[in-house]
Amino acid sequence: MANVVLRSAFIAELIKGFDNLNEDFLAGVPDYSAMVGNNAIDMNEIGADPGVLIDNSVYPLDAAQREDEGKRVFLRKMETEVTIITDDELYALPYDKKGSVLDRHKVALRMAALKLALHSFAPTEDTDETPVLQTSGDARDGRLMLIPKDLILLREKLDDLGVPQDGCTLVLSSEHVADLRLVDQTFEKQYHDIKSGKIGDMYGFSIYHNNYAVRYADGAKVAYDGAVEEGQMKSSIAFYAPNAMKARGTVQMYYSDALTQPRMKQSEVSFTMHFLSIPKKVTGFGAIISASA
């Protein structure tokens, strides 16, 4: 009974902390968790928006059925590696070791979810609907720096596609943040007020900073778990939040108490969480890749 209560308390605390995703770059992304069943979700890729007529006098109006593409999408399974807590540690340490362990598992799952989301938002390659640009600043560490002009051009591309500024998010890689801090005094001032990863609203984007950077090779996105190889370049990702979704599925805590392991006298803990954050529509997503110097 005690272990059941412990699991319930820890899972509730983990979910509570996981909901802090709403304080990061996923803040404006619609939450579809209520639609999840058996860790899957039935989704429709949204078809074309209707046209708008101004001062029209010709009737009947043209009519067209919106073609949405339905599909079932399974949430990704995220598992933390097992952490061992010995009874000797619990007696010797002057702090709550179990609480600390829970916190680290919570942080690890949260960071993994953000990485998965950012990678899914990154366009596969440059297309008419998903612009992927390259940086054009001065040479620095074997690449060209990101400069404000690059952000302005990306914003222009999205404007041409009809992507609104309100709800448009830009997640900068660490190297691109450093570039802008070096060349843009306004950005540098904004950076000092960073909260929960958000730097501020500039260049037509709500700008965030994340240490994870999606990598590209020869203009094509590298797989999430792809090996780091020479020639791959890091990127910053832009997305229109209303055209994306996020959803959390089941959360399970796996725990064995030291009292059940008389030979080792140690507890073991691991968590499994199902999560998904992907585009709902093709348009509204773009990237800027560091160009080779």
Number of helices: 6
Which ranges are low-confidence, i.e. pLDDT below 50, for 5 or more consecutive residues? 91-95
What is the 3D form? globular
Order of helices and strands: HEEEEHHEEEHEHHEEEEEEEE
Q: What share of residues is helical?
A: 25-40%
User: How much β-strand is present in the residues?
Assistant: 25-35%
Give the overall pLDDT as a whole number.
86
Instruction: Tell me the total number of β-strands.
Output: 16
What's the story with the biggest beta sheet?
8 strands, mixed
What is the number of independent domains? 2
Q: What is the terminal-to-terminal distance? A: 62 Å
Structural class: alpha+beta
Q: Write down the Rg.
A: 23 Å
Walk me through what this model shows.
With 293 residues, the chain is an alpha+beta fold. The chain folds into 2 domains: 2-45 and 70-119 and 245-279; 125-243 and 282-289. It has 6 helices and 16 strands. The chain has helices at residues 2-18, 87-92, 97-121, 148-160, 174-183, 185-191; strands at residues 40-45, 69-74, 76-79, 83-86, 132-134, 139-140, 143-144, 168-172, 198-202, 205-209, 215-217, 220-221, 233-240, 244-256, 266-279, 285-289. The strands form 4 sheets. Strands 5, 8, 9, 10, 11, 12, 13 and 16 form an 8-stranded mixed β-sheet that branches. Strands 3, 4, 14 and 15 form a 4-stranded antiparallel β-sheet that branches. A hairpin with a 2-residue loop joins strand 6 and strand 7.
